[in-house]
Each structure stands twice: as C-alpha cells, then as structure tokens.
Amino acid sequence: MSLTYQDFKQEVSRLCGTDLHLYKSQQMDRRIHSLMSFWGISDYQEYLSVLKTDPRRYQEFVKKLTINVSEFFRNPDRFIELWEKVLPELLQKPHRLKIWSAGCSNGAEPYSVAIILQELNVLNRATILATDIDQVVLDKARLGVYLRNEVKSLPPQLLAKYFRQEGEAFHFCDDLKKRVEFKNHNLLRDPYPEEMDLIICRNVVIYFTEEAKNQLYLGFNRSLRDGGYFLAGGTEPILYYRQFGFENVGLSFYQKIGPPQLDANDSPRSLL
Question: Same domain, yes or no, for 238 and 112?
C-alpha cells in the first residue's frame, strides 16, 4: 500500500528527530513538495526511500526545512541596543556571561556578538554558544568566510578591523572565531543549556505552530538566569510574554522576571 502524505510526515519526523507537525503546515507542505517536484519523485514511499539512502539529498531536505538567512549586524538597531544597554548591564554581574545564539545559521549573529564584546574589551568575560539544526550551515559558520552581502550592515571600520578580504570573500578574524562554540541542536527535541544570561533567537519561531512556539518560549525562560534577556526577531513578538515569565523591555527584547505561569499543555490565552 502506498504511503499517504500524513504517514510520510510521520516517518520523516522520526527520521529527522523533528516533529514536522510543529511547523506551520502551509509553509512546510510547500517546501516538502517543491523538492519532491524538483527531484522528479512521484510518490511518498519513493521520497522516504531517497531520504533514508541518499545522505546528500537528506541534507538538502533538512536545509529546505530550515531557512538560513543571516548577515552581520542584521537589524543594526538591535545590536546597538545590545552594545549600549543590554551587555553593559549584564556585565555588572559578577559571574562569567553565558550567551546563546539559537538557530545561528551561518554564524553571522554570534560573531556579531563577539565583535561587540571585543570592542567593549570584555570578550574574556563571556562564553558564546551557537547552535543550529543544520550541520552543513554549522560547517560554514565554523569556516567564517562570507560574501559581501553578508557583511553589508557592518560599519566600515569594523569590517576592516575584523575581516581579511580575498577577492569577493571576507574571512572573519581567527582569534574571535575561536571564541564561539558551535553545536548541532534541535530546539524542538534537545535539552536547552542552563543559566544563560542572553539568548538570541531571531527569524526561527516564525515557521512554527503556536504549540511549538509555546514550547520554545518555555524552554528559553527556563534556560535563562533571573534578569536574563531574550532577543526575538522583529516579526516574532511574544504576545503573552508575562505568561511565559518575561517583561517586554524594548523592541524585540524581553527580560526574565520569573518562572512561567503555564506549562507545555496550557494555552496562554486561557490564563488571561
């Protein structure tokens, strides 16, 4: 008997370790079927077989599910806020800062944070963890080589200071590269790191269902120390932030004020 689409998604969820039903169905279905058409696959049983036996196409499939778009100092005003307010405040704490870039894509985001910390002359007082589900993009991040459009938002003086240009490629400073730890991590499955002071997760949760978003926000709250900050994407406001234990303290910035008022089975609206 041929595999139905729902059965296919169930099997692929087990294969990838990610529940595809937690992604918004319209976007997910479009991406899945576009590859199916591009590869000339006629049924879901064949599709599943290809993903199980062809590592290259499996990686292409995973990459299709996770849109990796990033650049240095993307939305510069957010990084100015980090530079002038958030990080200086966090640096008043006596402990070593722990920073997590979740869904770090090509590494531009955590490397941007490393530049700011270096400019503040406090890079030795922080650890930076950068995670993503896509191993291919993590390899690119570790390499630290970027095209002009990926560094276009950097102030010229920082571009000159922290990059070596070779033709059209910009190579990130080796000393700062070594200060970022990259790891493969599935936000919907894997344990979250503990006692973070700052979590940055932008342009990731927009692709998830409300149920999955709730799961992530609960996880981020528990991952943060009290008073820690969470920086979300500009199109990803947390509508019921107080239910998740946050206060909205600036455009896209949320500060942990306590534990969540709900658990994974609650709807934030039901507590209003």
Answer: yes
